């Protein structure tokens, strides 16, 4: 299966080929042997220098990746404290100038806008939605909760294992009428 140029599999295969070529040149070519490659006579030394140059390209990339990885880790570690410092500075400027002062835009700080007043129709819709959601969820406020009472007193019947009532139970009491 062919791989894309520059893909990790292709890069690893290319590095392996370079190293194998270098090992073969070192093993089978003497320093005085000359090989004709693309119209150029190359000696063992020249061949190995060229292969070393090829490997240097890959090594430089790997070194740059390692440096990048360490710098990204350092940035990720420093980011929370940087964001906290920026938030503190932003708040200091808001305290200095006020939350809606025009000068804040010069610092790149968005102005806090006043909340828009709802129109009477929007307000009526919001109240209706609020009441409908409380009814659907069965939630109530403290005053509504206090208003719920049990009418009367529930009766208790004590029975034996056979199902006959035992003395000591109490009959239900109807709710009081006002």
How are the elements arranged and paired?
Blueprint: H1 8-28, E1 34-37, E2 40-43, H2 44-97, H3 120-137, H4 142-147
Antiparallel strand pairs: 1-2
Helix pairs in contact: 1-2
What does this structure look like?
It is built from four helices and two strands; from the N terminus they run αββααα. The protein is mainly alpha-helical. It has a domain at 8-97. Strands 1-2 form a two-stranded antiparallel ribbon. Helix 1 (8-28) packs antiparallel against helix 2 (44-97). The longest helix is centred in the middle third of the chain and has 54 residues, at 44-97. The protein is elongated, with a radius of gyration of 42 Å. The mean pLDDT is 85.
- Low-pLDDT parts are none
For the biggest β-sheet, the strand order reads 1-2
The SS-based structural class is: mainly alpha
Shape: elongated
Which percent bin holds the helix content? Answer: 55-70%
In angstroms, what separates the terminal alpha carbons? 92 Å
Beta strands, count: 2
Order of helices and strands: HEEHHH
> What is the mean pLDDT?
85
Q: Number of helical runs?
A: 4
Largest sheet: number of strands, sense, barrel closure: 2 strands, antiparallel
Radius of gyration, CA atoms, in whole angstroms: 42 Å
Strand content: under 5%
